[in-house]
Amino acid sequence: MFKKKSKPIDLNSDNKKLYLANMSHEIRTPMNAIVGLAEILLKRAKDPEEREYLLSMETATKNLLTTINNILDYENMLNDDISLNIEVFDVTRLINEVVSIAKINLGDKDVHLLVDVDPSLPKKLVGDGARIKQVLVQLLSNSAKFTQKGHIILTVKNEGVRDNCKVFFSIEDTGNGISKDALERIFLPFEQENATTVRKAGGLGIGLTIAKSIVEMMGGTIVPKSKEGEGTTFSFTLSLPVDDETEVGSIDNKEGCYVGLFLPDKAEEAVVRSLLTRLSIPHICLSNMGEVFVENDKKKITHIFLEHEKYVQVKDIKEIRDLSIKFVDFIESVKQATNDDEAVFVKKPIWYKDIAPILNGDPIAGYNPKAQFKETIQAIGARALIVDDNDINLKVTQGLLKPYGLTIDTAGSAEEAIRLINRTRYDIVYMDHMMPGMDGVEATKVIRSYDDPYYKSLPIIALSANAIDGVEELFKEAGMNDFIPKPVDVAVLEESIRKWVSSDKLSTGMVEVRETQKDGASYDKFKKIDVSVGLSYTNGNAEMYRSIVKDFALSIQEKKDLINKLATSEDVGRFTIEVHALKSSAKTLGALWLSDTALELERLGHKREMDSIKEKLPSLNAEIDAVMEDLKPFAKEEEVHVDRIDVDKPMVRECLRKLFYAADDYDYDKAKKIIFDLGIYQFDGKMEEAYKKLGDLIEDIDYEGTKKSAVWMMANI
Question: Which of the two residues, 522 and 406, has the higher pLDDT score?
Fold first, then answer.
């Protein structure tokens, strides 16, 4: 007999969007883990064949992530559901992000990425910066696929300011080119030159379709030009309102500059000449270094722009040194930079972002291993509150804010934050979103509900790793003023101070510039921890990262025991909170495998699947043990003998009050620390017995008993 066909499931638009979003998240998580693993293994692999396999794995995974993004956008495009998020965006930051991604896509190809950006562009424009970045990344990625040698040029020109700025974008390559027939179909979905091209270059063939749709939504048109065998150019123009018409690149003393160019690559020389011309900087092209002496007699040369190989050849020639000319060495890697008082080093590609500060005499322009300070804002006198249930996240955000001079308080829960805000006047609050108990959104609603104008106007900035669509709207509806994604970017953090702290508390000052370093001797044997990921969370601050490593090493065994104890007692609520915290702190450390395993258990905890939790728990324990093996050198507490001191009653009462609230918030880590800190006091008789009992109560996770004991001690101190 024939079976009757079942009716297809009718997914409405909302259900389909939710399904695609969940599918995307479930695929991205393991894909990001694979990329991380490939990068770790590449650092250790020495066999050429092994490295080739790992590079292929890494590239394939990144291409898959791009494909997932394109599938989601294409589905939205078919449903007329691609939306624009119109807001102010920083031009330099956008271009910098695009260039960084383009360099990664090119990898080790023998292709020069050149950036020809007009320094007269307005500093800030209004539009969907994320979508513009998406289009540029797609077009540059397309060029990278089909260009095996030569160059790719990203051009961004200013074609008019005033109220609206017409911005011309162009991506030109010296790749395969496109036949005339194929050029007519290039924007149709699933169209590529031929089957061989698809196999070699990859992709679904929908990237250009999506890019065209986005540009047209913004009022522009992508124009393709190509000649088979010679290369391709895609260009488009957008009219964008101006928010800040300050030019992105300007020179204070143009008359004092005269630049000699010693750049053998003619395409690169042309781009640099174009930049200097737009900056109105006089310059001359040199065919050899001997011409420097001739030209210098006519007009004083202030700077020489040259390739690294040329710099190496001439940097020690005394006669050139005696001319007191500043070398500007264009390098491929910061490893090529050396300590040279008469040189600055600029990583390619070359554009106004580095060149304008150098010509302005900025002492920290370019990459200089000896540079230690930079000029930035200071907010001395302003007070900030950081709210996060994760101690490591608190330490990182506090460390990133510290150079700006703010007085900083921290809170380990939303409830504690509300108490602090009720008794202290803050200038800015950084509020974590996902916290146990009351979350950041709920806390903000409580704060905004108070009548005092202070509570209505207090700047509250959301901190969240949750980047799904609609989350910013959720924050705004709750009364939050702004949103900073995790991991926290120090430039975005600095911008939040400029934007939200009262201008009368801001001034200019110097902050230390810390270069990224790894303390190689300490971390070289790590097998489960990616130090580069951890350092990225601390803005390259090796000292801060080392402190996080030490904290994690000293606390992880206790955290492991607690998690297992909660699983045994089937306290699924508390278990979920603890693995959630472990997930975040492990990721900040760079222990990505451990973070992903904790994430799986967190999801099971939310579903209250206790049997599955117990099945998965051995995997978590194994990952913790592997990380602990890496951290053995850091897990030794320095033995310090502390003489116990006489009881300071007001101080002890304050500590006991904080202990009560920590227990009330189910904050095990904070309660444990407060009890440890109380150990410096020499209690007498029953008070000493009560103090010792506190330690046992918190170890048994008896929060009610801890609160009662704290109250008794406060009453009898």
Answer: 406
Q: Kindly state the tokens that stand for 375.
A: 């000029």
Domain 523-634 -> CATH class: mainly alpha
How are beta strands 507-512 and 373-378 bridged, if at all?
antiparallel
User: Do the strands 303-307 and 259-262 form a parallel or antiparallel pair, or are they unpaired?
Assistant: parallel
Assess whether the region 87-247 and the region 254-370 belong to the same CATH fold: no
Number of Cβ within a 10 Å radius of residue 498: 13
CATH superfamily of 377-512: Response regulator (3.40.50.2300)
Quick check: 307 pLDDT over 60? yes
Q: Does the structure show a pLDDT above 70 at 297?
A: yes
Q: Is the pLDDT of residue 30 over 60?
A: yes
Domain definitions of the chain by residue range: 21-78, 87-247, 254-370, 377-512, 523-634, 649-716
Q: Which residues of 230-243 are buried (b: 16+ CB within 10 A; e: fewer)?
A: ebbbbbbbbebebe
The architecture of the domain spanning 254-370 is 3-Layer(aba) Sandwich (3.40)
The pair of structure tokens assigned to 681 is 């006091």
Relative to beta strand 231-247, strand 259-262 is unpaired
3-state secondary structure of 285: strand
- The residue assigned the tokens 């330099």 is 92
- Rounded CA gap, 283 and 304, in Å? 9
CB under 8 Å, gap of 24 or more: what pairs does 201-205 form? 201/145, 201/146, 202/63, 202/145, 203/63, 203/66, 203/67, 203/145, 204/67, 204/70, 204/71, 204/74
Greatest pairwise CA separation for the chain in angstroms: 100
Contacts of 356 (CB under 8 A, 6+ apart): 119, 249, 250, 251, 279
| CATH (residue range 87-247) | 3.30.565.10
| Max avg pLDDT among 193-207, 540-554, 591-605, 699-713 | 591-605
Residue 512 tokens, joined:
């230390």
Neighbours of 470 (CB within 10 A): 7
Using DSSP's 3-state secondary structure scheme, residue 377 falls into: strand
> What's the CA gap between 497 and 503, in Å, rounded?
9
Q: Which two tokens stand for residue 546?
A: 């080392």
What are the DSSP calls for 394-410, one per residue? HHHHHHHHGGGT-EEEE
Identify whether the C-beta of residue 501 lies closer than 8 Å to the C-beta of residue 427. yes
CA distance 277 to 256: 15
Radius of gyration of the chain (CA): 29
